[in-house]
Structures are given as C-alpha cells and as structure tokens.
Prior knowledge:
Low-confidence stretches: none
Largest sheet: 5 strands, parallel
Strand order of the largest sheet: 2-1-3-4-5
Order of helices and strands: EHEHEHEHEHEEEEHHHEEEE
GO molecular function, one term: phosphorelay response regulator activity
CATH topology of the largest domain: Rossmann fold
Keywords: DNA-binding, Phosphoprotein, Transcription, Transcription regulation, Two-component regulatory system
Domain OmpR/PhoB-type: 130-238
Mean pLDDT: 86
CATH class of the largest domain: Alpha Beta
CATH architecture of the largest domain: 3-Layer(aba) Sandwich
CATH superfamily of the largest domain: Response regulator
Number of strands: 13
Radius of gyration: 20 Å
Strand content: 15-25%
Structural class: alpha/beta
Domain Response regulatory: 6-120
Organism: Bifidobacterium pseudolongum subsp. globosum
Distance between the termini: 27 Å
Amino acid sequence: xxxxxxxxxxxxxxxxxxxxxxxxxxxxxxxxxxxxxxxxxxxxxxxxxxxxxxxxxxxxxxxxxxxxxxxxxxxxxxxxxxxxxxxxxxxxxxxxxxxxxxxxxxxxxxxxxxxxxxxxxxxxxxxxxxxxxxxxxxxxxxxxxxxxxxxxxxxxxxxxxxxxxxxxxxxxxxxxxxxxxxxxxxxxxxxxxxxxxxxxxxxxxxxxxxxxxxxxxxxxxxxxxxxxxxxxxxxxxxxxx
Length: 241
C-alpha cells in the first residue's frame, strides 16, 4: 500500500472524472473513481480513502444519501461535494449530512486541489488534537496508552500496542507482513515474518475474544475486527452497524 493520500472521485460525467483524475494524479494523490451512487459506496467501502469528491446529482443515489450511508457504516473520510447548483439549501444539506465542503460547477481544477489540501490539513489537525483512535467499539488513548474494547480494558505489551495502533491507523487497509515488520520492529528484528503471525494471534485473543452483555442480559462475543487476507497480510476491518 502506498503512503500517498487516496481519493475517490464520484461523478457520472466521464469528462469530469477524467479531468479530476489527471489533475489529482499530477498533484500526487492516488485516485479511484465511481460513476454512480451504488458504485461509490462499494468503492469507498473497499478502498477506505482519505477523502471523497462526490457529485450531488447522480443517476441512482444522490450524493447526500451516499454520505449518510457511509457515515452509518463508520467511514469518516471527509467529503467534498460537487454541485451544479449554487443553492444555499443544497450547501446546508451537504454539511448537515456529514460533508466538509462544496465546489460549484463549473469549477477550476486549481480550486478543487486547493480545497482538498485545506480539508486534509484541517482534518489532520483535528486528529492530532484528539488522543482517541477508534474503530467501532475498540479505542486507543494515545496520551495514556489505555486500550479498551466495548468499554473493557485490554492489557497489551508495548509491541502489541504498537502493532494494534498501526493496524488501527490503517483501518480498512490490508498491511503486508513486510510493512508490519518494517513499522513495528524496524531494525530491532531480523525480519522473520513468523513473529508477525505470532503477535497477530496474541492480539486476536485479547481484542476479539471478549464477551459483552446485551440489554437482555445475554452474553455474546464481540464482532471480530482483525482479519487475515491469506497470502497478502492483515487488516482491521471497519465494522458495519
């Protein structure tokens, strides 16, 4: 997985998609595209982008509905709306459903790139201010190094903590054993990939093997978050509500 910022462009007009893709590639971003609302949801769930450029008027599901659905699924990537109407009600609606900014068509590519940079800068500043990293009901407090799942404390070793944080920082993205070795063990380990498998197993027992009580008093195990992609690597999957 590249370290470049990833963006999903959603617009039903091929010419607009092509222009945005070319401009964003030139600006150094990774780009995926979708031509409809339903395709957008599928691509966004699969790629877990850093930002979404989303046309309001789509042939099947409008951009506002797409935003509501991805927010319900826990996807919090910022959304830049594209709208053909310079309408205050549209702009208010976009911000109300979870959008971050809007650009009115026709737009300049320079303006779009400038808005993207401003949104990403603002988002990253907010993330730095919040010491809590969350994926579903799993939380890490970066200030205290406390880890909880469904409100229950989890005791992790320093290496387990570093591995879990790396997975959570890249939620929804598959990380190879080589990437994990490089980030978690760096130069302190000889490079044996088996150590990654062992520590993933340790984490699973501590993070996914937890019982919680529902409203009726019945107990059940939490939804597993750590997933193996055979032959590729590991990931923390964003849970669906």
